[in-house]
Amino acid sequence: MQITMNPNSELNQSAVNVPEVVQVPERLIAEAKRFQEAMMMYTCAIREIKTKLEVLNDELSVRNQRNPIEMIKSRVKKPSSIVEKLQRRNLEVSVDSMMANLDDIAGIRVICSFVDDIYAVSEMLTGQDDIKVIAIKDYIKNPKPNGYRSYHMILEVPVFFSSGKTPMRVEVQVRTIAMDFWASLDHQLKYKKEFIDSDAIGQELKACADVIAETDEKMLSIRKSIESQGIEIKNDY
Ligand code: 0O2
């Protein structure tokens, strides 16, 4: 079958108006490739730390019949958040600047059952001889004024690529299920703060954070009291 085109048809007119192909500068293509490569490297660094955490959890669950880790979540920071953070700090927006200045491109969130699990897991991880601790912020012993609680670590882990060993930084946030529940909702509600009485809401959120912290403490003391009676605690899921 042969298809013929009317030169005056609308379809043909729009084909005539197709814009010329835009030439993307070589420099931009090279930077985009470097960005893609950097993201791959951060993803691999996440995998290294995640494996270490999973090994610890498996070992402890066999030894103690109880998993200290409920869940592990991870993400690489979105390009828009990277640009926003670099601009907020008045830093150059480039791949080199991102890698030199931002420690939270790779992020892991570890959700533990009890508060003492947070410190046990964190110590076991930082005690490994290939892990370098860059910074620690204990927002559990020193909660943020808004009530935020979590244990933050910036760690450096060696990742072996074809070109050799590269130290990569990963932010690890460790918190209980209850702290995670609060932080997740706080994160959502923050976006609406400009439309509401943020002072009153802030106080209510802080009050919730304090109740949650108290509950975490109570749950830990209940577990200890059960253990002191020689009763084994199991979490099978
Ligand atoms: P996202 O989307 O979770 O990655 P900065 O990163 O410059 O804002 P700093 O001192 O480098 O601050 O880091 P800090 O204080 O250790 O906290 C960084 C991360 O902790 C945040 O990342 C949040 O994930 C979490 N966080 C800190 N404070 C709060 C809080 O009040 N509420 C909640 N829900 N989370 C908090 P990002 O990059 O801000 O966001």
Account of the protein in words:
The chain is of the alpha+beta class and 237 residues long. It is built from 7 helices and 5 strands; from the N terminus they run ααβααβαβββαα. The protein has a 5-stranded mixed β-sheet with strand order 1-2-5-4-3. A hairpin with a 2-residue loop joins β4 (151-161) and β5. α6 packs antiparallel against α7 (198-228). The radius of gyration is 25 Å and the shape is globular. The N and C termini lie far apart (63 Å). Bound molecules: ligand 0O2. Ligand 0O2 binds at residues 104, 107, 137, 144, 146, 148, 152, 183, 186-187.
In short:
By secondary structure, the chain is an alpha+beta fold. 51% of the residues lie in helices and 19% in strands.
List keywords for this structure.
disordered N terminus; 237 residues; 19% strand; single chain; 5-stranded mixed β-sheet; binds ligand 0O2; alpha+beta
Structural class comes to: alpha+beta
Shape: globular
Radius of gyration, in angstroms, nearest whole number: 25 Å
Mean pLDDT: 88
* Spatial strand sequence of the major β-sheet: 1-2-5-4-3
Give the terminus-to-terminus CA distance.
63 Å
List the uncertain runs.
1-5, 9-13
Q: Give a list of the ligands.
A: ligand 0O2
Output the helix-strand order. HHEHHEHEEEHH
Helical amount: 40-55%
Largest sheet: 5 strands, mixed
| Strand elements, count | 5
**Total helix count?**
7
Task: Kindly estimate the percentage of residues that lie in beta strands according to DSSP.
Answer: 15-25%
Task: Detail the topology: elements first, then pairings.
Layout: H1 10-16, H2 26-64, E1 69-76, H3 79-88, H4 95-101, E2 106-112, H5 115-126, E3 132-138, E4 151-161, E5 164-176, H6 177-190, H7 198-228
Parallel strand pairs: 2-5
Antiparallel strand pairs: 1-2, 3-4, 4-5
Helix pairs in contact: 6-7
